Amino acid sequence: MSRPLILLVRAYQLGISPLLGPRCRYTPSCSQYAVEAIGKYGAARGGWLTIRRLCRCHPWGGCGHDPVP
């Protein structure tokens, strides 16, 4: 289940993200964080970490370096 999710995020990175430009407040970007989290922890926990990260990535949220735990 991890592989299809990673492929979906990669498709976003190659197809949609270049059209939107850099918008993420964190490093690594939210999509790269998703790939790393899903690759390291699997679909369930990695997906949960990604959802938590996406919920923090808003104008009133934090910023800076936020690596996958």
Defining key terms:
69 residues, mainly alpha, two-stranded parallel sheet
Describe the structure.
The chain is mainly alpha-helical. It is built from 3 helices and 2 strands. It has helices spanning 2-15, 17-20, 30-56, and strands spanning 26-27, 64-65. Helix 3 (30-56) links the parallel strand 1 (26-27) and strand 2. The longest helix has 27 residues, at 30-56. The model has no long low-confidence stretch (mean pLDDT 92).
User: What is the string of helix and strand elements?
Assistant: HHEHE
Report low-confidence residues grouped into runs of 5 or more. Answer: none
**Structure summary, number of beta strands:** 2
> Percent helix among the residues?
55-70%
- Largest beta sheet, briefly? 2 strands, parallel
Query: How would you sum up the global shape?
Result: globular
Could you give a short description of this structure?
The protein is mostly helical and 69 residues long. The protein contains three helices and two strands; from the N terminus they run H-H-E-H-E. It has a two-stranded parallel ribbon with strand order 1-2.
What's the helix and strand layout?
Elements: H1 2-15, H2 17-20, E1 26-27, H3 30-56, E2 64-65
Parallel strand pairs: 1-2
Helix pairs in contact: 1-3
